[in-house]
Amino acid sequence: MFENLVVPVDLSTASLEAIPIAATMAAAVDGSVDVVHVVDHVDREPLAKEILGRAVERLGPQPTDVHVIVYTDRSVSDRLTRHVEDHPGSMLLLRSHGHGRTAAILGTTVDELLRAMFGPLIVIGPHATASAGTLGGNYLVPLDGSTRAEGVIPIAAAWAVEFNGSPCLVEVLDHSVAGGPDVMESSYVRRQAAELDERIDRPVDFEVLHDRDPAGAIVEFAAERQTSLIFIATHGRTGLERLRTGSVAADVVRHSPVPVVMFRPPELSHTARPESENATAI
Q: Distance between CA atoms of 193 and 189, rounded to whole angstroms?
């Protein structure tokens, strides 16, 4: 859970649009929002703080306290990581820009933070609506058969208990690949749903989708269920013959109208960057 949401901004209109969504989510837990901007020289702090303060004011009244903070640091991700570590109960909520694929979709800062931090963070994609930010409601948890992807289930479970959410586990299979009957195909998510049902003591839905475009299928299904949050693990590169989680996570963020709670498995934190610029970044 979180008590405070930290929203990094670069003073662009897109990054500022994440603030009202963060305020809605923080207000639900009687928390607050830290809007953080990082400059590369201390002389730039006063002007940056003035510009940011005015930008926040133009957003109008928010349902909770919004604090404007400007730091000087050569590394945005390092400064944000330290801010979260210095403020227990804080969680990052970031706005992605949606350019290109993989790392470019989320931006360098999001990718660096996913690599540097343990625990979930919330990413708001370019298609997120202004009304997003409900903590309860229907949750969607995409799985791919790998233990790494399953690492997000305890997070979804904790949020479901805390905010009275209703999880649905979903697996996407390529409809062009011949398979057994539906009952055979659904055995994996059925078992995971049953285990989660027992853990949180409430009904857990599950579904098997058939599509060559996993991310598109996930986003479309989320819209049909009026999903409020999507929970997805990143960089689950093993066991991904049916669903390549790395690129799927990025594409889900790119098209999702609701916040995506992203989680990198602990064993993949603090890992080196891919050598190739074309490597899957998340």
A: 6
